[in-house]
Amino acid sequence: xxxxxxxxxxxxxxxxxxxxxxxxxxxxxxxxxxxxxxxxxxxxxxxxxxxxxxxxxxxxxxxxxxxxxxxxxxxxxxxxxxxxxxxxxxxxxxxxxxxxxxxxxxxxxxxxxxxxxxxxxxxxxxxxxxxxxxxxxxxxxxxxxxxxxxxxxxxxxxxxxxxxxxxxxxxxxxxxxxxxxxxxxxxxxxxxxxxxxxxxxxxxxxxxxxxxxxxxxxxxxxxxxxxxxxxxxxxxxxxxxxxxxxxxxxxxxxxxxxxxxx
Length: 262
Fold this sequence. Notes:
This protein is of the alpha/beta class and about 260 residues long.
């Protein structure tokens, strides 16, 4: 499928979605969200994909936020529809069975930061800037930012960022636990590809079980989470990947995971 606002590429079990509106700093529009929805559906259905990477075209922005001119023309109903669409698409992103890495190469503001927060973890360039500045426009985050940010940094830090609308550096985002690693701009792609390749060398059944268990940790009580982990562990143990992994360890060789995931 050909997209107008993004690029979807796959290589060696790694898919990459690049937001491709560099002249507009990759700002989010209704069309961008529709195409991201379609691209995620392709990723979800592709059994060969083990990792997804999200990044932005150009060297200035991951996603600089929503298209302000479009927002200015929305009323309550169209705004509610736009917000709900964004929430659903980012929930689909968060719910993919494969790990998702955000490679933030510049501005990640508003909907851009919310998109990055929906990924499993974030690597950022030293030039990256994060923030939820919606309050300065008389708005609030509408793509799940108030919920995901609070779960990551805690209530007090999230309230400060949202109430002030201030932006923070990649280093500050690292200190808050939003970002996992900060690199020089020219090293970001290589570092992300390296960790993506490492993950892609592992078994899909275990990756899916790990992600489902980890995602449930913030949403359910401990006893329920333990039950979900227990179920996922049993499914992994019964998979061909577990047999290959344990066998390779005992035979002192590198495992070759080929197990299928239904």
